[in-house]
Amino acid sequence: MSQNAYIKLVPASEKQVVTIDEIKDMFTYYKSITSKTGEQLSWGYSEAAFPYTIEEKEANNEWFCLKGTDPRKNRYILIGVGFEQIEVQTDSTENQQCYIQVSLTDISTHGDKGKANEFCKFLATKLKGELHLFNGRVMYYYSKK
Q: Known Gene3D superfamilies for this protein (predicted)?
């Protein structure tokens, strides 16, 4: 059974809408900072920190797949962007809220789940979003006023 985690972009977030290309750019940035960490440690840390390749399927630019480089440890993580209708409590109107969905497939490994949690926390920190983890818990990465 597949599992899902969500990063919701709330009004206090850095951005209100994010695209697939922006998420891919964030993963490119993640790979560059982990490779710099590896250079400082004289160790190939970038391969351990991001053991995936980004694969694009024909999905109208709504999602992409992270395919593991070592199938024994990592297989697949799916990442997509969507919108949901939320009700504003003050005046009962509905607004659109952007979210990033991170999904594990039926064949995903425990290594995929650990990396997916790590990537979710990274994305939620960068975007100052609200992270709904695979286990149902919620982490807030934006300032509450």
A: Rbstp2229 like protein, Rbstp2229 protein
